[in-house]
Design a protein that fits this description.
This protein has 12 helices and 9 strands. The protein is an alpha/beta fold. The strands form 2 sheets. It has a 7-stranded mixed beta sheet with strand order 5-2-1-6-7-9-8. It has a two-stranded antiparallel ribbon with strand order 3-4.
Length: 281
């Protein structure tokens, strides 16, 4: 079997590319990821016909499409339906009941899945609320899924998933919310696909995130583990700004905002610990 092709990089060039990726994504790459980086760079050299690193780096700075393609190649899209569903239980049992005490029927409630990868987590929120929150029809619930990876967003909009992504969904929910299987893959029904809006967003780009407005609940799970301390603090500030006063932030089970920023208060509910935006008074 032929070994995957790589592009050998000098220590200086590896650092230059790592710095570029860090500024674009907040994720820290370096010597420990050398093989991973060189393999993906080889793919881009082959696709573009660019012969050397300096030319390619110049291209990244001027060609938004190539920049987007490279970033897509470095993102992690590991997810599935009903992942960490104890947080979904917390959403319907605790977070939304707390929020609607300050709302009237018909008011908008905004929920953000960021990053949303290929859509499983954002769609899981929609399915969970339809199945488990009795007031779901009393309010205008808007669910937005955002990610830096445009390929993942395209897959999310298509809404087609294999058995691995669906493994934790009960069979009754698969039949209720998905079309019949074709070649071991199932597509979400149109009504559910249309219930979630997908947008491109970069967690460390506060100005671009501001265009999305503010949200009552944000799910930002299992991404801060890839950031360094500086990027985590920047992301925390951006998330704080995008939460409505008193809004809630749900992180991955290995993540804690108390170690990153004092702008959030840890709130322990029956099903999960989440982080609430602190506001004066």
């Amino acid at each position: 079997m032929t070994e995957p092709r790589t592009v050998p990089l000098s220590a200086v060039d590896l650092q230059r590319l790592s710095t570029f990726l860090y500024r674009q994504t907040g994720m820290r790459f370096g010597e420990a990821k050398r093989y991973y980086i060189e393999r993906r760079l080889a793919d881009r050299y082959a696709a573009t016909g660019i012969p050397d690193f300096s030319t390619y780096l110049d291209t990244l700075r001027t060609d938004a499409m190539e920049r987007e393609t490279l970033i897509n190649a470095f993102t992690v899209n590991e997810t599935y339906f009903y992942r960490e569903d104890h947080q979904l239980a917390c959403l319907s049992q605790s977070l939304l009941p707390a929020l609607v005490t300050r709302r009237r029927p018909g008011d908008k409630i905004r929920i953000w899945s960021l990053p949303c990868s290929t859509g499983e987590e954002a769609y899981s929120i929609a399915i969970w609320l339809l199945e488990n929150w009795r007031l779901v029809d009393a309010y205008h619930v808007e669910i937005v899924g955002s990610d830096i990876d445009t390929r993942a967003l395209a897959a999310a909009r298509d809404g087609i998933y294999g058995e691995r992504a669906l493994a934790r969904l009960p069979p009754a929910l698969r039949d209720a919310y998905f079309e019949p299987p074709k070649r071991q893959r199932r597509r979400l029904i149109a009504d559910l696909r249309e219930s979630v809006t997908f947008t491109a967003a970069n967690l460390v780009d506060g100005k671009a995130l501001a265009l999305h407005g503010v949200f009552d609940v944000i799910f930002c799970r299992n991404v801060l583990i890839y950031f360094d301390d500086e990027s985590r603090l920047l992301a925390a500030d951006n998330l704080f700004d995008r939460l409505a006063p008193g809004g809630f932030l749900c992180l991955g089970h290995t993540e804690s905002m108390t170690r990153i920023s004092q702008r959030f208060a840890a709130r322990r509910f029956e099903d999960a610990t989440v982080f609430q935006r602190r506001d004066a008074g």
